[in-house]
Fold each of these.
Amino acid sequence: MSLSELANPTRFLSLTTRILPWLAGLTAILLAIGLYQSVQAPDDYQQGATVKIMFIHVPNAWLSMFVWGVMSLASLGTLVWRHPLADVAAKAAAPIGAAFTFLALVTGSLWGRPMWGTYWEWDARLTSVLILFLMYLGLIALWRAVEDPSRAARAAAVLTLVGAINIPIIKFSVDWWNTLHQPASVMKMGGSSLDRAFLIPLLVMAVAFSLLFITLHLAAMRNEILRRRLRALQMLQASKPVALPQ
Amino acid sequence: MTALGALIRRDIRIALRVGGGALIGVLFFLTVVVLMPFALGPDLALLARLGPAILWIGALLASLLTLDRLFTADAEDGSLDLILMSRTPLELACAAKALAHWIAAGVPLIVATPVLGLLLNLDGAATLAVALTLVAGTPALTFTGMIGAALAVTLQRGGLLLAVLVLPLSIPVLIFGVAASNAAVEGQLSFSTPFSILCALSLASLVIGPFAAAASLRHGLD
């Protein structure tokens, strides 16, 4: 089923009604496996058991950047190809991405206290992720500020594409600046430097979180389509002439 | 070319007149800088240490305040529709308006910097450094702020949302501007590295700003 066939909202709704329960089940299973593996993973020789926050913190951080990438693609779909569901996808993804970013900041902060001795530090990685969070909130505010969703879509699409510059800055911030946050250890040239005992649960959790995002995103897109239909019906109702009592 | 020149002259003339907003920006800059010692205390050494940062934040907030009027004034009286319908490319028209805004609102901020540096106990070298970084950085503030201003035209009450959208984009300019000023004062790190990055940010925003603003205006007003 190609993207152009999925442009029909009714077909999209019927397709997601069928596949969403399966996606949710698969997500739950993978999350359960990932959490079990995380609990079973050995303690770090230096950090002890607190290293296991990594299995929650890192997938959240990866997804916060991935969601902005998804929104950028959707924004291109809105501006360039005028795909009818592209703006629905972009609007639905914004709060989910903001939630992932917030969780990444909070779990990172909780991990930082035992590991670095501070809840917060103004280094490049933390600051750029905080800016990403502010940009998510600004984007959500822009969506809500315009009454007509399709006009809001174009403004939000431009803002999303302009803000996409922050994603490579976040990724490479630990390499470009002298930061307290540790440098890249999973996705770098020459392979990962993480031990297999930690890498496997991390990758399982990453896949589980990605499936979680897809499930939540599709559900949110369904809600947004229904919300717009409701709005159209309400406007139709409001434009009908009122029958005056005799 | 004459159409763009006329646009620039018109914008500068409107901005400099009463209610135009150019001189209000300088007044706001002065107010913010004067407020800081009330909050921080009169310790001159502390003020001199924080001086470049205070001046940069004041300039950032002042340019943010005047950016609000960049497109909304024209949208209200219908000139924005005329600009959209004219034969000059919308990107060039946006760049011309931003240039006029920088001349009318950004340059007075730079001119006011030596006076305000005196209030903050900055010595001559520090004031010169801050003024130089402002010359390099205020175009970036204007041209990236223009993106937010164009987005805010589609809203009724743009105001605060404009600030929320523009400030994250202005943070790199602020970081490098203050870094360059502090480097010139302390003399341990080089001044030219953050200064060249600041110039690069300004040059990049000269290109990206008009394109993004034109895209917002085109899509937002149809």
Amino acid sequence: MSEVGIFGDVMTVALFSTIYACVAVFVIACIARIVMYARAPLHLRWELYPVPHEAPARVKHGGSRFEQVDWWTRPCRRGLLAEWKFMVPEMIFLKGLYEFNRRLWYRSFPFHFGLYLLIATAGLLIAGALFALMAPAALPAACARALRQISGVTGTAGLALALLGAAGLLVRRLTDPSLRMYTTRGDIANLVFFLAALGMLAAGSLLRPAAAPDAAAVLQGLLTWNTALEIPGPLAAGIFLTSILAAYIPLTHMSHFIAKYFTYHAVRWDDAPNRQGGKLERRLAEYLTYRPDWAATHVGADGRRTWAQIAADRAAPEGRE
Amino acid sequence: MKNKLKLDDLSRTDRRPLAHLEPDDLMRLPYPLADPSQGRPWTPPAEQARAKRDYILDDTCAVNVPQPKTSEEEAELVARFLSGLEKLFSRNNNWTFLQPLLLTMEHCARCQTCSDACHIFEASGRHELYRPTFRSEIVRRLYYKFVRRGGLLSAWQHGDIALNWPLVARLIELAYRCNLCRRCAQTCPIGADNGLVAHELRKLFSQEMGIAPKELHERGSVLQLKAGSSTGMSAAIVKDNIEFIDGEMREKTGMDVQTPWDVAGADVLLIHNAGEIMAWPENPGAYALILNAAGISWTLSSEIAGYDAINYGLWYDDAQFARIAVRHAEAARKLGVKKIVIGECGHAHKALAVVADRVLTGGLNIPRESSLTLLRDIVMSGRIALDPARNHFPVTLHDPCNLVRLMGVVEPQREILRKICPQFREMTPHGVDNYCCGGGSGFAIMSGGNFADWRFQVSGRKKLEQILKAFADCMSPSIPKYLCAPCSNCKGQFRDMLAYHDLWNRHRILYGGLVELIVNAMTDVKPGFIEWEWH
């Protein structure tokens, strides 16, 4: 084996190891964040109307079941379909931003939609690679070619849109005084990171020699641990940076794709009523045994009394605060 | 000054206010308040008040912020603040709002989408101090630094802030420059809630440091638990007042009006905001007349807190909130009523029907609903005879945030108005997109120092604009106009704000509740229930 070959092999091993490590970090960090939010106690009701799972006639004006006399005797709607009908355009097209902050939408939408296209591209490439490995005969050559062509289009469009959006967001953050003041060095670095990683990925793809492995071949090599694959430097750098970026995202506020589930479904739309003897009441019973230690005298919390005891006080305990 | 304000300024050790608003800075109003030079001048704080209170945030002062005399006292207060901040993020101490608070702290993108939704920010002429994210960003930086104990990397990622007593003192005041209307949260693409941050800050100051506006705490929730009502009225006094109101109503309407008290097993326990009994007696009187005419089995309660629906704890203190909600439910349980119906009071609606739903368990979980739905059913059912011609004057409707955006009671009041008010017109925007009256979250009862100026010039300004636009086609004083506000606190704000801008005398804009319009349209009642007199 030539020296270049050995070097290439080491680099490929390093790259593949990094990708697997980053995927692991991404998955673990996402799960940790989901668990952190999911395990938080059920909060007091704090919904905001309109709530989309309400009866369609009431959703139109933002009404709730409280608009009916004796609402507790009527069936309680919890239509997931209606929630998703709201959420899908929100997730894909950033409908809320379009409605309330159009100037930012022109930058944020291409950025996010570009990322979606890149995720879709990765999905297509993984599917293609898996087919090629596990059941090559099941995927006709024409289909495999089509898959590559489609992924080529989505990947190119995704990179172009995400880069355009990231650049637009960075310029806006730096030039709009209302954003600049709230922009930390970390925020700027995050956008620069996106530009660097995706820019390098784009450059690596564009500069790749015709005979060198493309993204599909790299994925296939990754899945089969084919370290003999000689990936061109710029493409390897792009894949490396993008992997690190993917691992970094769930460690930051940019993991709002996770948060958004909770802010909408578990807070804004959580209008589930507490019924006597019901599931919610059992959960609340536990919280009412918690022993707070707020220090103000009137709270009467000394770390021994429970929330239930404090709520049952006939008056606020007196004394000098 | 407004363009130069920085987050770090909150830690400034000099005593100069961070913000000062001139009339020209404020959002322009339409006719007849279009000329800022003709506007009412802001009352400067008296020297005595200035010496006694801290005006280090802006032109006004809502809270009696402690005045530490030594650096040791300052350090102790800062330590207590930090202790409270940690408790906000602990399960035992803040299970009530931990999840939404965490989500807001961790995920706000500071895109400023919420800013355009905030009536205070807009009315102030977009002063940075009043931007919804200004307050939240300070708290977020403190959260990462002191709760998450982030080091240099965290400071680089999330930003840094110097914590000292001036910052804490200014944050105390800044927590009371938000109406908690949560219009900002409604527009947040991520679902972050900057209104909640103000709410949680208020809780920290009250529950850990014992600091809250006296109108909400000593004269509010503490008094209510002790005397039965934040008005200070005991049950005996309330009964006397209601008896007097019944008599007045009989005389005025020619109908037999009798308010039932403590009727065991009644279908409905009606709880008014007791402020109505003192300030707008025609409101509880109108309720009594309508419910009796419709044949409803109902009662009032003379139990402690059972005759006053207010729950100021909602705005600043979970312990006080829970105590009052429990007392309301106990009053209903004692009488064995089928349900609690809440009178025209927005925050009482949200407190008792929505937020307390996860406090009241077991036998205390008695069904609770809005009186507006009951009234809608009565009006639409034809049980009482109504003549819309009696309400033939321009009427517009204010949507109390707590009742509408935060509870979803939007249409019942409109169905009533469309049926009985031929000249009903909507404000723009309305319904769940409404603007706060400017008195929300307790401001309507807070007038210490010159805080009222801030309420009428800044926090109420956007609503004022809406009102003037809704009546733009009939501003002549020869046409009496009615601003319908089915909420006691909103009415308090309107009473004071319309008087402040002299809009009754100059343009005959009157405010009032919904039941007054219903009784005014009742054919069995002597005409002229609404007297078109300022009250």
